[in-house]
Specification:
heterodimer, A: mainly beta, Immunoglobulin-like, ten-stranded mixed beta sheet, 15% helix, disordered N terminus, B: alpha/beta, Metallo-beta-lactamase, Chain A, seven-stranded mixed beta sheet, five-stranded mixed beta sheet, 8 helices, 20% strand
């Protein structure tokens, strides 16, 4: 045990100064980090930054519905947030572009196996700020068929939106919305990829609060939680990759 | 680094090699004349307990034995049958599965030569989900599960009084913990086998729960505990009780859970915020409550949330 402790402390001693000196040391120690760095960010500037919070359960009971909350509000103005999971067969989970709403988004995802889930927030100086957390799961979330694929009733309700917002108390300005959609990944034999790919949240003057670009790993019947500065009517406009559209108001 | 891996490797090898002979150490507790139970640990499934987290039991009549649930694996079922054989020379007349969760029926293989009875919904559930449940248990309990295969019930039972092996048994066809929950009341001894409708000192599990139905089931079970002949209540998990306290504890916990989900949804909480809510002191002492609470959020919060979101949007 003493040797083990020695080895561990040696590893830590090696790791901590490097963290300060270079962005290349992944605090989540993922074997896939090098590939993620190259694939998503190329030569762009990137820092690991605790101000970007990715909140999720350390152990996810249901790999089909893993709740993830991304909060990059501590950075101030954020142009874009990319959410991805190193070990998912489809890496990108979603992108969101906060405008008049905060850089905050709650949603649920499908995880195929235990993986870091990360959020990279782009600030106006062109720097990506990266936060993340490991989520352990028994897995299978991406290659299991959606419930909808087995039950044709959903077709009548496709893109049906229900939502609500909170106008007072600690949750003032919070908007929550659910959309009926199978969000099929295309990884199940015989079921093509079928997912929402663009959702805009607008204020009554048609000014963009936030744009969300989901990808296949977002869970079936997605639920989004976002935060606008001042409560007021919110219009949601969206479409899936087959061109089905929706447009709905969420009243205060 | 290499040394670290070697060290870790030694730990991994040491655990299964450390004298585990896959003996569940089942000891029958006599709780009434001719009625025995095997009490499992108040834990989650693990390679340490081999899935022995469940209560099973048997009733010895003048003409045979009735077995209530068969445990999480073939090994458990075999060891259970052996332990029964030591206590009585009577043959097994009937095996019952109280519901379709794996720790209650995966020992059926050891009784494959005898009739295995269950409610129709339980039988259908085992036929539908049995293999997926077994796979999951292989993952969580490891080699204890070797050789285990799903053996679905062969006989359907329904509500009513039945004479089996010389005992009058009252079958209650209930639901709530799952879509079909069988409770068994042995009229002569006054012992009520409640299955997983009742937990004692351990947080209830809710993967297939319908809380409204569960409440009605608890009311019916509690009514039996008020009958003059009632002597003992065998919960699906936790110690045997001589009164209805575990029924009330289960009901209180489920009430709290339901209310907590409803309030969280009404307050606009996101699932991650619900997951980290504190457990009230009243329930903090229940075994495995924090992990069961988190699981229950996954099972129950989406519906509570949907009721709040309703159809607030307008086109």
């Amino acid at each position: 045990m003493k040797l083990l402790a020695l080895v561990l402390s040696f590893g830590l001693a090696m790791g901590s100064p490097a963290l300060v000196a270079s962005e290349s040391v992944d605090p989540l120690e993922s074997a896939r980090w090098g590939d993620m760095r190259k694939l998503f960010f190329g030569t762009q500037q990137l820092v690991f930054d605790d101000r970007v919070k990715v909140i999720g359960p350390a152990d996810a009971e249901n790999p089909m519905q893993v709740p993830i909350t991304v909060d990059a509000t501590a950075l101030g103005s954020v142009q874009e947030v990319l959410v991805f999971a190193d070990f998912n067969p489809i890496l990108q989970i979603l992108r969101f572009f906060p405008q008049r709403a905060s850089a905050f988004l709650g949603f649920r995802i499908k995880l195929q196996q235990s993986s870091p889930v990360r959020a990279a927030a782009l600030t106006s100086d062109g720097v990506w700020h990266l936060g993340g957390t490991w989520i352990n799961t028994v897995g299978g979330g991406c290659t299991a068929p959606s419930a909808a694929s087995a039950a044709p009733e959903w077709q009548r309700r496709l893109n049906e939106v229900s939502g609500r917002q909170w106008t007072s108390g600690p949750m003032s300005g919070r908007v929550r919305m659910r959309i009926i959609h199978p969000m099929d990944t295309g990884l199940v034999a015989g079921i093509p990829a079928f997912y929402l790919e663009d959702i805009e949240f607008l204020d009554p003057e048609d000014r963009l609060l936030m744009r969300v670009q989901p990808f296949e790993p977002v869970s079936e019947n997605p639920v989004f939680t976002l935060q606008q500065g001042v409560p007021g009517r919110v219009q949601t406009v969206g479409r899936d990759n087959n061109g089905n559209r929706f447009k709905t108001w969420i009243e205060p | 680094m290499r040394r670290l891996f070697i060290l870790l490797g030694l730990f991994l090898v040491a655990v299964p090699g450390g004298g585990v002979d896959f003996d569940y150490g089942l000891e029958a507790q006599r709780i009434a004349d001719g009625v025995y139970v095997f009490i499992g640990r108040k834990e989650d499934f693990s390679t340490g307990n081999g899935g022995n987290i469940v209560n099973t039991g048997f009733i010895v009549g003048s003409g045979g034995v009735v077995v209530v649930d068969t445990g999480p694996s073939q090994r458990y079922g075999k060891q259970m049958r052996k332990a029964i054989g030591i206590l009585t020379g009577q043959p097994v007349s009937l095996v019952l599965n109280t519901h379709h969760h794996p720790d209650h029926f995966l020992g059926n293989q050891a009784f494959a030569d005898r009739p295995v009875g269950a409610l129709a919904g339980t039988r259908a559930g085992i036929e539908r989900d049995g293999n997926a449940f077994a796979e999951n248990l292989f993952r969580m309990a490891g080699d204890w599960m070797l050789g285990t295969e799903v053996h679905a019930p062969t006989v359907e039972v329904s509500e009513g009084v039945r004479e089996v092996g010389g005992r009058r048994l009252r079958f209650l066809a209930l639901e709530g913990h799952t879509g079909a929950d069988l409770a068994i009341y042995d009229e002569r001894s006054g012992v009520l086998f409640a299955g997983d409708l009742v937990f004692n000192g351990r947080a209830p599990t809710t993967p297939h729960a319908e809380l409204g139905h569960w409440h009605r089931a608890l009311d019916r079970l509690e009514a039996i505990t008020r009958e003059p002949g009632f002597r003992a209540l065998v919960p699906g998990h936790g110690e045997v009780a001589r009164d209805a306290a575990p029924i009330r504890q289960t009901r209180d916990y489920l009430d709290w859970l339901e209310g907590a989900m409803r309030t969280a949804a009404a307050n606009g909480m996101d699932m991650n915020e619900v997951l980290v809510q504190p457990i009230p002191r009243e329930f903090a002492g229940l075994a495995v409550v924090s992990s069961e609470y988190r699981r229950s959020v996954g099972h129950l919060f989406p519906a509570a949330e949907q009721r709040v979101l309703g159809h607030g949007g307008s086109h």
